Amino acid sequence: MEIRPYQNDDCGAIACFFDRCFLNNLKFTARSHDSEYYLWKYKENPWGKPAVFLAVTDGKIIGLFSVVPKTIRIKNETLRIGETGDAYIDPNYQGTGVLWKLISHAFKSMKKQNISSFYTIANEPTLKIWTELFKFKKLFEYRSMVLPLDFSDIFKKRLNLGPLSSFLALPCNLFYRTFYRQPNVSISQNIQFQKVDGADKRLDEFWEERGSNGQFTFVKNSEFFKYRYSSNPEKYGIYILQNDKEVLGYSVLKFTDLFNMKCGHIVDFMVSKNDALLLRKIIGLSLDLIKKEGAQIASSWAIEETAYYKIFKRFGFITRKKRYHVIFGGDIIKRDDAHLMLNSNSWLFTHGDSDNI
Questions:
Q1: Assigned domain for 7 exists
Q2: Quick one: which of 61, 69, 277, 286 could link to 17 by a disulfide (CB 3.0–4.6 Å)?
Q3: Are the C-beta atoms of 220 and 207 separated by less than 8 Å?
């Protein structure tokens, strides 16, 4: 077995590796596993060069691990950090130490770039690996949430109920319209919600005002938006909420297929001054756009203890059973103020802070 760094012409073989070992068993995936996606993800980004290593046997990929550099703001300090991801081992080689070797190579590569702090999103099976073997620390949990938008199509496409779908959908739609009406938010009429490009400099102005209000947040200036969303081969829409004077917030939307239905994801969002009314407004406007695109389901992430989790629930979002864990490791958890990171309300963390969407 050979452990070697990724090269650009490996992206096709990586796509074949996923197709061979994993994609046939997935009910759905929120992001692409095509070669074009990996060619984009593994190229050098504005914050550094990703560390990507492959395990190869007899010319065939049997393992993959990556760390992608990003930038985080801790109070008024900016720090480069690596997101670990794409930890995949061929089922025939799992439990043989391949993953350990890949991670060791990637972390050593990152340290050569002076990146010694890391984070990842762990599910239940991988949480123990990271916290026990690599001494990562769990900070908080987030939940995946879904909102049914069209019960008739859901019953037809998901449950295969045919002509009965419209009849059974009537009481469900009535229930949602009655108990989960979109909150009435009084905001002045001069506010606009418009689609913009990731390079729009108004995003920089908004970031400088809003980003400094959070104790812990990933840097989200125009450079981030241009790279993460606009240059990404996946299709994202960036929308800003603004009045005559300033940007009041933004949201990022993406559409995928979920169980043979169209799903609109609220990938990222932020509002000025943590204003709950503005947050309700921007989520409501995002849902309006998702409905206009003909989606049957809307989806997002939220941390249970936060105000925006409660707002999603107010709109009728249903919390799915699975729990995901945001965990950090390396030098960042050795800081004197690391204990403050355990307070989920001190974070501005959304689905877009992970490469899983």
A1: yes
A2: 61
A3: yes
- CATH number for the domain including 40? 3.40.630.30
Rounded Cα gap, residues 269 and 265, in angstroms: 11
How far, in Å, CA of 238 to CA of 220, rounded? 12
The tens digit of pLDDT for each residue in 68-78 reads 999 998 877 88
Of 283, 334, 291, 324, the residue nearest 307 (C-alpha): 283
Q: Does residue 351 belong to any structural domain of this protein?
A: no
Cα–Cα distance for residue pair 80/102, rounded to 1 Å: 21
8 A C-beta contact, residue 29 and residue 37: no
Residue 291 placed within a domain: yes
Residue labelled with tokens 């077995």: 1
pTM of the entire predicted model: 0.91
Please classify residue 290 by burial: count the beta carbons closer than 10 Å to its beta carbon, then call 0-12 exposed, 13-18 middle and 19+ buried. Answer: buried
Token pair listed for 143: 């939940």
Residue 347 lies in a domain: no
CA 355 to chain centre: 5
HEC string of 116-175 equals CEEEEEECHHHHHHHHHHCCCEEEEEEEEEEEECCHHHHHHHCCCCCCHHHHHHHHHHHH
* 111 and 150, same domain (yes or no): no
Instruction: Provide the token pair at 147.
Output: 């909102």
**Residue entry with tokens 């005002």:** 209
Q: If pLDDT is split at 50, 70 and 90, which confidence band does 165 have?
A: confident
Instruction: For residues 306 and 234, state if they share a domain.
Output: yes
164 shares its domain with 106:
no
Give the mean pLDDT of 35-63.
93
Question: Can you give the residue range of the structural domain that contains 296?
Answer: 144-325+337-342
Q: What is the DSSP string of 250-282?
A: EEEEEEEEETTEEEEEEEEEEEGGG-HHHHHHH
66, 161: one domain: no
